[in-house]
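Risk register update: the risk of archive-format incompatibility is retired. Evidence:
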Amino acid sequence: MVAIPSKQKLYDTRIDIAEDIRVKVINILNQTLAATLDLKTQAKQAHWNVKGTDFYQLHELFDEMAGELEEYVDMVAERVTALGGTALGTARIAAAESILPEYPLDAVGGIEHITALADRYSAYGKHVREAIDTTDELGDADTADMYTEISRTIDKRLWFLEAHLVK
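Archived output:
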């Protein structure tokens, strides 16, 4: 079991957001960091293991999606540290703290991987939209804007995945 600090030590910053607000935002960001790392590795799981007639197309799509998520991992972690917090981004923490279910390791065909990823992108998108609202209500427009940027891409990728599921 991973020991996650219940109260983070904040580092000094000249950002003019009150400490109590920064703590709340940092906690939300670290939850997002865990989920983003998890979703990235799940997209790679699909990338490595997809089989079937659409192999190459899906192999490339899943790799592109994982690459986008890697950019968001860095963006979220750097926002945590900019606010004076510690980014909690190890694989063990991500596994322990992610809001996403475990990836189905028996998925083989393209539709199985697409469905699994669509389910997870949907849950992740919901988390991100809730974070937009919460960080905006807390008065951190920059973090809310960052979440809005992430949300647009996640919704677009969910659309790409769901388009494969239309019969």
